[in-house]
Design brief:
Distance between the termini: 23 Å
Strand content: 5-15%
């Protein structure tokens, strides 16, 4: 059974691409960022069950542990998604200390040092992730995984331009 038009991992990936486009159009929107993170995280279970032989929770943990070295951001996605769902986190994977908006310094040179306001995630060790960069890297990971590991043809993964903005 699917959820509306989401019947398998490929459909879930297409939803992730749509959420990516929505986020890129509203880069300070925490709700679009969280939606992207939740979908990207849930792909670990969808792909695991459909392609990875995942049957039990233990199998799912083994599958996810195999993905973490390839996309360390999945640990952050785990924490954000579970905090979003449960409000608290009993088994954190990434040690998030805070999330929020950060305003960068002004630079009259208008180079990459000129950084406007952006969403950030800070870990307890002081590492700061720019959400824009994290979202790009996570989408790149899943795109690579579907195309190379699962060998799903591009035409099955692509979505129509009109489908990007259907709501």
């Amino acid at each position: 059974m699917g959820i509306f038009e989401i019947n398998d991992s490929i459909d879930k990936f297409k939803l992730l691409v749509k959420q990516y486009e929505h986020y890129k159009n509203k880069q300070l929107s925490t709700d679009t960022a969280v939606s992207f993170f939740e979908t990207a995280w849930s792909l670990t279970e969808w792909v695991g069950k459909e392609f990875g032989g995942v049957v039990t929770q233990n199998d799912l943990g083994i599958f996810r542990n195999a993905l973490y070295p390839r996309c360390p951001h999945l640990k952050v996605l785990h924490d954000i998604s579970n905090m979003s769902k449960h409000m608290t986190l009993s088994k954190p994977k990434s040690s998030i200390s805070k999330t929020g908006k950060q305003t960068g310094p002004f630079s009259s040179a208008f180079t990459m040092q000129f950084q406007s306001t952006s969403l950030v995630i800070e870990l307890e060790d002081g590492t700061i992730y720019q959400v824009n960069d994290m979202i790009d890297e996570v989408l790149d990971f899943w795109n690579y995984y579907f195309k190379n590991d699962l060998q799903i043809p591009n035409e099955r993964l692509s979505i129509k331009l009109e489908d990007l903005f259907d709501n």
